[in-house]
Amino acid sequence: MLGLLNLTEQPRAFNIDLAGLGYSGACAVYDFWDERFVGLREGALQQTVAPHSITVLRIAPFEARPQLLSTDMHVLQGAVEVTNVRWKDNALYVSCTRPAGESGTVSLLVPTCYVPTDYAAIHTALVPGTNLYILSARLTFETDTRMFKVQFAYDAERDAFKRDRSGDERY
Fold first, then answer.
1. What are the angstrom distances between the C-alpha of 130 and each of 4, 63, 82, 85, 145?
2. In angstroms, rounded to a whole number, what is the distance separating the alpha carbons of residues 118 and 13?
3. What CATH number does the domain containing 57 carry?
4. CB 16 within 8 A of CB 47
5. What pLDDT is stored for residue 166 in this prediction?
6. How far is the C-alpha of 70 from the C-alpha of 74, rounded, in Å?
7. How far apart are alpha carbons 26 and 161 in whole angstroms?
8. Of 61, 80, 109, at which residue does a domain stop?
9. How would you write the pLDDT of the chain (171 residues) with one tens digit per residue?
10. Pair type for strands 53-61 and 82-88
């Protein structure tokens, strides 16, 4: 998570050294307030912040498989309300906690070689110029805990990232 604050009268450009923040390789970057995928960045990130504004970015290592991108339930985009994320058997499981009666959106970043097996209650949007799309689902909390699962079919012919996927259950 990275907050960029601009208290000046002019737009301010920030140059962020991702390696200096401990990231190696490509990172997925999401802007909380603008609710937009900034893109995949490696090494450095340039971000301009409007006068008297703040930008809150979620930066996460790019996994080349479906992964949590963000939520709209808290400014920390998952750090508070997401209790568990697990990738197993071509399915992504996201567990969240919120007070009963509340709702919120979970957004995933997905390479196009992974296709949901069921499109019920999800929205997808291609990221122009990439081999990625964003999958979003609106969750309503009937109790204070909710688990969200998306099962994917993997199409090796569409895999632009070609990484080893054996046994990856991290998160």
1. 26, 15, 27, 24, 34
2. 42
3. 2.60.40.1180
4. yes
5. 52
6. 10
7. 12
8. 61
9. 899 999 999 999 999 999 999 999 999 999 999 999 999 999 999 999 999 999 999 999 999 999 999 999 888 878 889 999 999 999 999 999 999 999 999 999 999 999 999 999 999 999 999 999 999 999 999 999 999 999 999 999 989 887 655 555 443
10. unpaired
Give the DSSP letter of residue 162.
Answer: -
Looking at the domain assignment, is residue 39 inside a domain?
yes
Global pTM value: 0.89
Residue 90: both structure tokens together? 């071509």
Question: How is residue 137 written in tokens?
Answer: 């689902």
Query: What letter would DSSP give residue 30?
Result: E
Residues 105 and 71: beta-carbon distance below 8 Å? yes
Q: Is residue 142 exposed (0-12), middle (13-18) or buried (19+ Cβ within 10 Å)?
A: exposed
Contact in structure between 154 and 117 (CB atoms under 8 Å):
no
Domain assignment present for residue 144? The answer is: yes
3-class state of residue 19 by DSSP? helix
3-state secondary structure of 156: helix
**Strand, coil or helix: 20:** helix
CA neighbor of 77 nearest in space, from 151, 153, 3: 3
